[in-house]
Amino acid sequence: MPVEIWLAYVGTVVALMSTPGPSHVLILSNSLSNGFPRATATIAGDLTANMLQMLAAGLGVAALVSRYASALTVIKWLGAAYLVWLGISMIRRGSTGVGEVGHEQRPLHTLWLQGFVTSATNPKAIVFFAAVFTQFIDPGLAFWPQFIALSLTYIVMDGFVLTLYGTGAHWVASHMEGPGRILLNRVAGGFMIIAALLLALKTLSHS
């Protein structure tokens, strides 16, 4: 893949990531409530879903998703409802003073699942990856080496951005004590609900 095409792709991804999405809000929430080291499991879940979506796009599943979009929308609504439930649970814990923010210690598999569900419940992402990648793949060159290069670039950039969000939230949490930690738990729950609303808005915009 020519360097100039790859740089154009990087610029496109930077522009796409300039607006926070559900995954970014989720990593804020989990870093506030669990600490960033444990919240890296959420990043891993998100990137796992991204890789599967990219693979599906590369294998030509985009047309299938477009055909059955109405059925897959149900999956996305379930994912949004799941995040709302988590957010309300966190706010209730903050209201009762149960647990310390940054020391909630949710199981790593739960944090991973949250990241995976948030990303995977956007089936349209397969169509998105297919649409974006085709703009930068040269039909005169081998397909899969170019596809892998674009996929890995996206994964690295997305992981870096999520890390920035997570470490920033963790720093804030580590500098708050006493009542501030209870308030932070409520804020984390609020972020979780915002992530759900962002998922719901995406569903409505594509319906």
Overview of the molecule:
The protein is mainly alpha-helical. It has one domain. Helix content is 81%, strand content 0%. It is built from 9 helices and no strands. The chain has helices at 3-16, 22-34, 36-58, 62-67, 69-96, 108-120, 124-134, 143-174, 179-206. Helix 3 packs across helix 7. The longest helix is centred in the C-terminal third of the chain and has 32 residues, at 143-174. It is globular. It starts with a helix and ends with a helix. Residues 96-103 have low confidence and may be disordered.
* Number of separate structural domains: 1
What is the average of the pLDDT values? 75
Number of helices, where a helix is a run of at least 4 consecutive DSSP H or I residues: 9
Strand content: under 5%
What sort of overall outline do the alpha carbons produce when their principal axes are compared? globular
